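Thread: Lysine transporter LysE, structure

OP (GT): Posting the sequence first so everyone is looking at the same thing. Length is 211 residues per the record. Can we get the structure tokens written out before standup tomorrow? I want them in the notebook alongside the other entries.
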Amino acid sequence: MTAETWVAFCAAAILITLLPSPVASLIARFAVQRGRRSALVTVPGVALGMGTALTIAALPLAALVWAAPALREPLSWLGLAYLLLYILWSFQEPSARAPLASNDNLPQQRPLGIFVHFFRECVGTGRYLVVLAALLSQFLDPVMAVPALALEMQAAFVLAVAAGATLHVLFPQRTLNRLRRPARRHPASHKMQTRYIARRAVSAGFRRIAA
């Protein structure tokens, strides 16, 4: 591949990692609640998991193109359309925009458990398999011409994903703030509102006094 194609491939890999997603949110949570040093364990789990997912997504795609070469161009256009929709959908995903609870419990405690959890999240989630297949559909021509190039692409992809995941570790607050935008408050939002406790209406001010 040309240098421009390599840059485009690596940039696309980093972009997929940086897009809002449950995995990106979870990496940032580990960095906030456990510290950046502990959150670094998530980086190899995400990188190897996404690399494995790339291989799994490539197998049926390569078999389909090999069996029906005429589908190469339609698959490329279909993959491009899906990538654009995926970007738009990522910023509207409910699981990424949900509020972060103050007593949020992380799924794993030990480094090995953290690594395995993130690896499973990347490999066992269909969303990444589909989006990676769509990404690979944009580079079918050079890969089919030089099959050995697939190994180099996978290595570059793993490094690019690791770089993207590291950004979530280094700047967790930016990731969480981007994923969960605070709701806009109206000028009258500071007024006391009615709350219902045990089917009886009480004001927020009374609750503060009672507390």
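GT: Both are above now. Quick notes for whoever picks this up: The two ends are 66 Å apart (CA to CA). The mean pLDDT is 79.
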